[in-house]
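Thread: Newbie trying to understand structure tokens

Hi all, I'm a second-year student working on a class project, and my supervisor (Dr. K.) asked me to get a predicted structure for one chain before our next meeting. I've only ever worked with sequences, so writing a 3D structure as a token string is new to me. If someone could post the tokens and maybe explain what I'm looking at, I'd be very grateful. Here's the chain:
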Amino acid sequence: MRLAHLGPSGTYTEAAAIDYDASAELVPVGTVAAAVAAVEQGEADAAVCAIENALEGPVAETLAILQRENPTLMIAAEIVIAIRHALVGPAGLDLNDARIVYSHPQALAQCRQHLTKLVPYAQPVAALSTAAAIEAAAAEPNALAISNARAAELYSAHIYDPDISDQPNNQTRFIVLTAEDAERSGDDKTSLVFTMAHDRPGSLVEVLQPFADRTINMTKIESRPTGLQLGTYYFFVDVQGHRSDPEIAVAIEEARPHTQWLHVLGSYPRWTGNDA
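---
Reply by user tm_fold:
Sure, no problem. This is what the structure looks like when written as tokens:
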């Protein structure tokens, strides 16, 4: 299997890809959109994409891909990994002399408080990934990066602090996008996205009521602006069960007429690993 993922080597997404299939051929690319495009163009069999973080919430770039109205890929799996953000860079730098800290915007946000204490004179600067941040820091004087221990080893960077996350139990959930979703495993999750047919009281309840009537457990709901008009939203919902389960299938079909557009993003085994 060829797994496209946000690169270069050493990113958390690469770690999630290895966790998903340690024998896979890894295909690092520059963006989440490029990972999806690699699958759509036949250059990879699946794309591993971050979708939400326990501290910072949803990953907008991935949600923007999932809300496309003519999707070609489906969610076939999920992976959850623990996040250990490390402060790294060239050896021998006095932290008070640091003027820049590079990292992915999510990582910068997740370490904001610790950065203020550890490198009080450094400005946070966004990088495409936590691994790319190390390369950027190495090319500039008085610069550091937020990355991880594996990436620090790969790029021969010094670890100044192995864990600078502002909150404990930092985790990120990743999804695997393929041409088809997964077969029933007996412990599954189904992801949906929809927009409302009407802007009136009770319209969202009408969509969700078929699931409640069948005591189907809803594990997640969040909204994201459509970008078409202020006050219009895409709703992302996760429910427990597989879309081929009779109760799930009927609930989806009963909900559909109350939406302007509803798409099943995929059904896949619920992650039950040690990091979840």
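A couple of things are worth pointing out once you decode it. The mean pLDDT is 92. The CA atoms of residues 70 and 263 lie 9 Å apart. Feel free to ask follow-ups in this thread.
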